[in-house]
Amino acid sequence: MPKIVDHDKQREWVAEAALRVIQKGGLEKATVRNIAEEAGLSVGSMRHYFSSQAELLAFCMNLIIERIEKRLTSLSLKGPVFSDMKLVLMQFLPMDEDRTMEMEVWMSFVAKALIYPELRKINDEMYDGLTKACHFVIDSLVTHKLAKPELDLEYEKERIYALVDGLAIHHIMRPQQLTQDKIEKIIDQHLQSLCIDELIMP
Amino acid sequence: MPKIVDHDKQREWVAEAALRVIQKGGLEKATVRNIAEEAGLSVGSMRHYFSSQAELLAFCMNLIIERIEKRLTSLSLKGPVFSDMKLVLMQFLPMDEDRTMEMEVWMSFVAKALIYPELRKINDEMYDGLTKACHFVIDSLVTHKLAKPELDLEYEKERIYALVDGLAIHHIMRPQQLTQDKIEKIIDQHLQSLCIDELIMP
Predict the structure, then answer these.
(1) Chain A residues interacting with chain B (CB cutoff of 8 angstroms)
(2) Which positions fall inside the HTH tetR-type domain (chains A, B) (predicted)?
(3) Residue closest to A177 by CA, chosen among B133, B13, B38, B124
(4) Band of residue B1 on the pLDDT scale cut at 50, 70, 90
(5) Looking at this predicted complex, what is its ipTM?
(6) Using CB atoms, which residue from A161, A174, A185 is nearest to B155?
């Protein structure tokens, strides 16, 4: 009887091994040989799963995007809106091991995408995903009449997105200086600064 | 008569060639061979200037730090304070070719510094330099009685630094989406949000 292997599951297994290799050694260490070793597979078998390194990398980055989406859809947002929006933003910040790993791998990827145009598409997808989440946060504050009426919404969306990414990068660069507690406080105070005073919780 | 070569000038020449190589091809292309070719020197002569690739990389990053410092010290800050502080922050944003190049090379370097602890020291130097500049901006607003009295200064310093770096990264990733005009407006409005209302210029 032939061995039945779930092809999709196996691709995911390989991609997860690749993510660990990238986190430990950067993208330059993400060779077929290293990834096969980490996945416990033979080098020869790798071509069954990915025909090129570019395909494997794209799959890895998609895996990260999927993980974030999964985290977002499984959030139980049951109000108050202010806390819910804070919770949404925190999904993009390196507050646990998984999110730190995602962020570190993504940083390597962004640096590479600046140079290789073929990687831009997936980088743009991540950018668009995060932009959408930031729009959702600001729009929710408006819909629920929490936002100050004088806010320039377009500007606030760009500002909050830049803030989230800047905090994420600073935390992985200097976790002792910009601690997770500080990040949470900064996000909290930033959201408060966008809201009508009377509606802010103590 | 022996040929007289200014050793320091030559090191700088090599480092500038290295920066161009990194910008075009990422850090993985920053090999002795490629840099020698870009600098118009023989591979053999390179060891006169740098004994290792790590030394060359550290020198390159120092070059970027020096450039930024030079730009900062040559700024003519003659008030109003609000515009001066905006000008200081804009030095860290990719508003011209030089600053864009610095930022792109730095991104590659940060991704690498996450993996190689020996590169952390110089990464920390840049971090400290930018932190200091952000402290200077917030402290100046306070000294000149422009800042809202209720500001949490420690938090504002981290927030403005994260904002500046986030904007810089988003601009080099998606220059058409986050334009230089938008960046300038965001920095302007952010600074305004920190200041007492009556003191804001129209």
Answers:
(1) 24-28, 104, 107-108, 110-115, 123-124, 127, 152, 155, 158-159, 161-167, 169-170, 172-174, 177-178, 182, 185-186, 189-190, 193
(2) 8-68
(3) B124
(4) very low
(5) 0.88
(6) A185
